[in-house]
Every structure is written in structure tokens, then in C-alpha cells.
Write a structure and sequence with these properties.
The structure is a homodimer of 198-residue chains. Chain A has 198 residues and is of the alpha/beta class. Chain A folds into two domains: 4-52, RecR Domain 1 (Helicase, Ruva Protein, domain 3, Orthogonal Bundle), CATH 1.10.8; 73-196, Dna Topoisomerase Vi A Subunit, Chain: A, domain 2 (3-Layer(aba) Sandwich), CATH 3.40.1360. Helices cover 43% and strands 11% of the residues of chain A. Chain A is built from eight helices and six strands. Chain A has helices at residues 4-14, 21-33, 36-52, 69-72, 87-96, 123-130, 146-159, 184-192, and strands at 54-55, 62-63, 80-84, 102-105, 137-140, 165-168. In chain A, strands 4-3-5-6 form a four-stranded parallel β-sheet. In chain A, helix 1 crosses helix 2. Chains A and B meet through helix 1, helix 2, helix 3, strand 2 and helix 5 of A and helix 1, helix 2, helix 3, strand 2 and helix 5 of B.
Chain lengths: 198, 198
């Protein structure tokens, strides 16, 4: 619809996840009217993220070095590994400041419909990390949905024979939520996982 | 939170309109995992839109030439000018294929709270276009909201004395909508603007 460059930008933006045609148009016009230097910085940030960022050779978290900040950090507890699906999950857990161990990013979850099996995930690399005697506990922190649960079940079956402590994050009512709005499965899990107050 | 380049990209994306921190993170990780060439194209589209696109010297629509495609088109009816707030509105009207005249993009609407008065809009340039005898009708197609109505009122007062036909887009029920869900003002306008069926 638009002339050359504007339409190209709208098309490129529209290919990004969660940006529909209307948003793409709004963002394109914002870019058009915004400060040139700011927009050059945005363009450079896109190119440089592709050039600079790679994945940690140990845990597969995003990193600008061969190993990530967390794996390099000598103050972290090396006896616990928290297994997550994505780098985003690492950041979500880091923000809570309630975990001081290491991570292992699987790179997704088992999803037969999308053709993702265990061999597409970094499970083999996790197993080789566990051959080291240092690790005493593996916390399975995959998403509490169908694919995440399938992945957790697979990990339990695969890691079980090694004889390391395997734990799973608690499911239950979200803090700040309303009991009446909780879905049946969550409420059921909250009952199963009830804790003694005495 | 993230290391260098990833965080920079999230920050830059988060400054775009309608993209919150979570969306910025999702888009950043998409960029990180997407094809390098695709992302280079996106970065180039951002830079090139700033370099190539300017505003039509006649109507202030976006254009890659000194005058836009519509102003250059000899088949358009030069006796009607449709006045809109933004280039986006030009495209919205073009999509309907129900108008074959020219446009005039004001570059916004009168908004005293945001400090935008008539002198910040391309009203003077509109007046000089009307000094030409060719134009017989001006359609005021500003948004049907407070600022758009204020702008329309101002235009009527300013252009009235020139003695050109001034019209305003009809307000009424949106096609495909439900009467019971229409707001009071829209429903009131629909009554005022009712048309004879006989």
C-alpha cells in the first residue's frame, strides 16, 4: 500500500512475533518520525545482537563469551542445577533472587506435534554435566503446561537411574490471585501440595 | 538483567510504541534465534526508511519523491481535497477505493493539552492550495474524537470565508456493529444523520 521503504519496513516489522499489521504500521510511523540517531541505535542493536551473542558452552544460556556470566561466577553453588526450557526462564528465576545454583537451558520442550523430541533438546549435554560428582540435585523447572510436564516426565525417567536428587517446582495458587478464579487443575495441585502450618 | 547486546536490544525495542518489556524480550529472543539475513533486512529497513522517506511538498503525505504518488497521479480528481490528520489516514481511505481526489495531511490535530495549536499543523499550506481556483470541495476527515472535532471546527471557521464547499465525513453506526453496543454519542449522531429510504 505505502511507497517503497515504508511498506518494506511495515512488512519486516509484521514478521516479528506478536506484532500485527496495525502495530507494524504504528511502529513504522514512529520510526519515521523519531530521532535518526535513536533509530540507528535500534538498527545497530539488532545487527550486533546477532553478531555478539552466542550460547554458553556449558548451560546453553545466552552469553557474549564462550561461557555465561552465571557459569563463570565462582560464588554460585555448583551442587544444584536448575533445568529450564529457555534463557528467558533463567532471567525470570534470577529476578526472584531465590536460587544460587547453576542452570541448564534445554532449548525448548518436548512437543511431538511440532516435531520436537528429546534429541532436539540439550539433554545429552545435561547428562554429561551430571557425570561429574559435584552435582547433588537437579531442579526440573520446565513450564507447568502439557509440553513442560512431558519434558519433566522424560527427564525423571532419564535422570532417575543416576541416583541424583530430582525435584520439581511447586504448582499451586499464584500469590496475589483469587482462589475463585483459579482453574481446576491448579486448585487440585494446590490441594495435593498443601503444607502444614503447625 | 541480560548481558550486553541482548539487554541493549530489549531496551531499544521497549522504547517503541505499544511494545512493553515482555514483548520487547520476546521480540529480542526472536531476533536472536531468527535467520541472520532476515534480521539484517529488518535493520536495513529501519535505516533506509529514515534516509529515503520524506514528506510530499504539496500534501505532506509520506513519499520517496518530492511529491507523493497520489499528487503526481494525473488521473486523480484535482477539484476535491480530503483533509486528514496523518498519512495512516490516507492509506485507510485509499483502501476503501471510494475516493479519487487529493489529500492534505495536517500532521496531527489541535490538542491544547499537548500544546498543539493550528500553527503546528499544515493549515497555512492548505490555505495556499485553496487559493488555486481548481479546488471546489474540501472534505474534513479528521478523527471523530475530541481533538479531531476541534480541528474540524477550526478548519470550518478558517476555510468558511473562502466560499468553497466544506463537508465532513458522516458519523453513525459502524457497519457490522450492534446497535445495543453503540455508545450514546454515536447513536445520537446516527439519528441526526438518518437518511430517507424512499
Amino acid at each position: 500500500m505505502y511507497e517503497g521503504a515504508v511498506q518494506e519496513l511495515i512488512d519486516e516489522l509484521g514478521r516479528l512475533p506478536g506484532i500485527g499489521p496495525k502495530s507494524a504500521q504504528r511502529v513504522a510511523f514512529h520510526i519515521l518520525e523519531a530521532d535518526s540517531d535513536d533509530m540507528k541505535r535500534l538498527a545497530e542493536a539488532i545487527v550486533s545482537v546477532k553478531e555478539k551473542v552466542k550460547f554458553c558452552q556449558i548451560c546453553f544460556n545466552v552469553s557474549e563469551e564462550d561461557t555465561c556470566r552465571i557459569c563463570r561466577d565462582a560464588s554460585r553453588d555448583r551442587s544444584v542445577i536448575c533445568v529450564v526450557e529457555e534463557s528467558k526462564d533463567v532471567m525470570a528465576i534470577e529476578r526472584t533472587r531465590s536460587f544460587n545454583g547453576l542452570y541448564h537451558v534445554l532449548g525448548g520442550s518436548i512437543n511431538p506435534i511440532a516435531g520436537v523430541g528429546p534429541e532436539q533438546l540439550h539433554v545429552r549435554e545435561l547428562l554429561s554435566r551430571l557425570s561429574d560428582d559435584e552435582v547433588q540435585e537437579v531442579i526440573v523447572a520446565t513450564d507447568p503446561n502439557l509440553e513442560g510436564e512431558a519434558t519433566a516426565t522424560y527427564l525423571v525417567r532419564t535422570l532417575g537411574p543416576i541416583g541424583i536428587d530430582l525435584t520439581r517446582l511447586a504448582s499451586g495458587l499464584p500469590v496475589g490471585g483469587d482462589l475463585e478464579y483459579a482453574d481446576d487443575v491448579t486448585l487440585g495441585r494446590a490441594f495435593e501440595g498443601r503444607r502444614s502450618l503447625s
